[in-house]
Design goal:
By secondary structure, this protein is an all-alpha fold. It has one domain. Helices cover 80% and strands 0% of the residues. The chain is built from nine helices and no strands. Helix 1 crosses helix 8 and helix 2 runs antiparallel to helix 9. The longest helix is centred in the last third of the chain and has 30 residues. The N and C termini lie far apart (48 Å).
């Protein structure tokens, strides 16, 4: 198989997997609005790194790691949900939505690591990557070069989505007044809290 073709197909798949807006997407939007495109992009790149980790596991066919992550799905999901609720509460209480004025608590490095850890607390994502790589060009056991190219393509596609999202949001809301930005920031906080609840609900149902 042509490595370039594998890269582009993986890039499209990585973009498609990252594009649906979930809690991390809302967090990226909120940080881009409140702190600027750089912090929003750092948030997205943290998520893209986690996607790359799962892509590597899926492409390499590491079934033992998959089994371990699946067994930890419940505690990780609960931890991730609580963390998202805490972030949503902090966003809601934020005294100002004006970009670059209320970002002392969110440096780019902090934004990156928080998004990375939050994305990794959803280990069931790995099942999506396993299915994706099983269908890529009909290759069930790719070689080392194919694995590297696939993972690079998936990570690049995911990063491309976060780049477009963060700079688009920052550009659009740069023209808006403080009142509009404040309201949108609070809407983001509510959506993050609701989405976190939706993610943890199946876990709670199983526990009960």
């Amino acid at each position: 198989m042509e490595l370039l073709a594998v890269f582009w197909r993986s890039l499209v798949l990585g973009f498609s997997i990252a594009a649906p807006v979930g809690p991390i997407g809302m967090l990226c939007i909120e940080r881009s609005l409140r702190c600027g495109a750089g912090v929003g992009l750092a948030t997205g790149l943290g998520a893209a790194t986690a996607d790359g980790v799962y892509a590597l596991i899926g492409a390499a066919g590491l079934s033992a790691v998959t089994a371990v992550l699946s067994s930890l799905a419940t505690p990780l999901a609960l931890m991730g949900c609580v963390w998202l609720w805490w972030l949503a509460w902090g966003i809601w209480r934020s005294p100002s939505a004006e970009a670059t004025r209320d970002c002392r608590d969110v440096a780019p490095r902090q934004a990156y690591w928080s998004a990375l850890l939050l994305t990794l607390t959803n280990p069931m994502t790995i099942l999506s990557f396993v299915a994706v790589f099983a269908s890529l060009a009909g290759v069930s056991r790719p070689g080392a070069r194919e694995v590297v190219v696939m993972v690079a393509g998936m990570a690049a596609g995911s990063a491309l989505w976060w780049l477009l999202l963060s700079f688009s949001v920052a550009g659009i809301f740069a023209r808006c007044g403080d009142v509009v930005r404040r309201r949108f920031t609070r809407a983001c906080a509510l959506l993050i809290a609701v989405m976190a609840g939706q993610l943890v609900w199946p876990v709670l149902v199983r526990l009960l």
